[in-house]
Amino acid sequence: MKKVVMRECPDYTPDIVKAKLKESLDALGGLEKWIKPGERVFLKVNLLTGKEPKEAVTTHPQLVKALTELLMEIGALVTLGDSPAGPFLQGRMKKIYQLTGMTAVAKETGASLNWNLEPDSVYFSEGYRLKDFYVMKAINETDHIINVSKMKTHSMTMMTGAVKNMFGIMPGLKKAELYFRFTDPVEFGHAMVDICEYASPILSIMDGIEAMEGAGPSAGDVVKNGLILVSEDPYSLDIVASEHMGITPDSVPTLKAARQRNLCQSLEKVKLDTSAGEGTPKSFKLPDTREPDFLEKYGRWPVVGSIFKQISRKHLRPKPVVNPKKCTKCKECYTICPAEAIDMMEKVPGFRYDKCIRCYCCQEVCPEKAIWIFRPKILKWFGGTK
């Protein structure tokens, strides 16, 4: 039975965060259980894009600092890093490290920031959908990986959690290629599981002190959630987190894929270490990107069903829309779009919906929250989700 430790932590007050994190880790056996003095530890934090900590887009620096201090106290050599959405370039990383507070963490603790931006081609024989792929070279030059994720909703995968966080070991725009290659959410989930299995983090920690709901992973609303979650198993951690957020685990592609591969247990088979009253489930506002299941149901009808499916998928599917008043024409969406479905018009980006694969990467990287997801009201009449 896999164990998940959940502890209440009301805010990012340094002493409280460190004490609660240490208490959580000690409940699993303490850091010394996995790490010896002198070993190199890579903290794979969530640095999706250059946002300040108060926006709850990235792993909060105070949690990262507390973990770094605890690791260094037992003699570990700590490196902080991630490959954010978009190009993996030194100038861009410098800005992201600065905005997310990682530069300050490194300065205050003596930890290193990862500047090794080289890709490393790997072969993973156990991969279910991915066997040949690229990862950050730094990942293969460390002794241990600790997965430090952020509790957020996600427009494509319903939630960002420990498993999805490991996607960031794939460098730069290589990630966008996977969105185009695996347009079916569950197939994409299998690819995420393959990457997580390759990385094999020794620990997964989730920053749920302040979380995100709605149009995650970057354009949603901040939720004062007050939780830290820790586990040796990223799948069990995500199950507990999804249930807490009010998300059915099987609606999360990574968890559905993991369950199909017997890597994922039900909540009843997870040993949850929590005090009475801690982690009371909440109903997070979910992304408005769910597709109606009637598209598949009626699409099976001979002839008429085929026509209906074509029309409905063209006119009834949720789609990204740009707000011209917020758009600064930075071209972030244009650069990252894996389907090349965006044209830079004279005023704002233009979407070619016949090519759009609904990965919502454009919304994910937009620094101004200028892209929102339009979902036709008629879908609410039919109900149901895919």
Automatic annotation (TrEMBL):
This protein's record includes keyword Cell cycle: no
Domain named 4Fe-4S ferredoxin-type: residues: 318-347, 349-377
Q: Which InterPro entries match?
A: 4Fe4S_Fe-S-bd, 4Fe4S_Fe_S_CS, DUF362, Fe-S_Ferredoxin
Q: Where are the transmembrane segments?
A: none
Any one Pfam family here would be: DUF362
Which UniProt keyword terms apply here? 4Fe-4S, Iron, Iron-sulfur, Metal-binding
* Keyword set includes Lyase: no
Q: Which PANTHER family match?
A: 4FE-4S FERREDOXIN-TYPE DOMAIN-CONTAINING PROTEIN (PTHR43687:SF5), ADENYLYLSULFATE REDUCTASE, BETA SUBUNIT (PTHR43687)
Name of the protein this chain belongs to: Uncharacterized conserved protein, DUF362 family
